[in-house]
Amino acid sequence: MAQTISRSDSRGRVKPLRKRGKELPWPANLYQTAVGKKYIMALTGIGLLGFVVVHMIGNLHIYQGPLAVNDYGEALRDLGGNLVPRTFLLWTLRVGLTALFVLHIHSAWSLSRMSEASNERYQSKRNYIAANYASRTMRWTGPIILLFLLFHLADLTWGWWLGSTYVRGDIYHNVSESMGSIPVAIIYIIANVALAVHIYHGTWSLFQSLGVNNPHYNGARRGFAAGLSVLILVGNLSFPILVQTGLINENNRTTPIANSGDVLAPLSSSTVLEVGS
Amino acid sequence: MSNNLNLKLRIWRQDGPDAPGAFLDIEADDISRDASFLEMLDTVNERLLGDDIEPVNFPHDCREGICGTCGVVINGQAHGPEKATATCQLHMRKFRDGDEITIEPWRARSFPVIKDLVVDRSPLDRIIEAGGYITAPTGSAPDANDIPVPKDVAEASMDAAACIGCGACVAACPNSAAQLFTAAKLAHLNVLPQGQPERWKRTEAMVETMEEYFGTCTNHGECHEACPKEISLDFIAFMNRDYIKAKIKNRSLASQAR
Question: May I ask the CATH class of domain A32-116+132-252?
Answer without folding.
Answer: mainly alpha
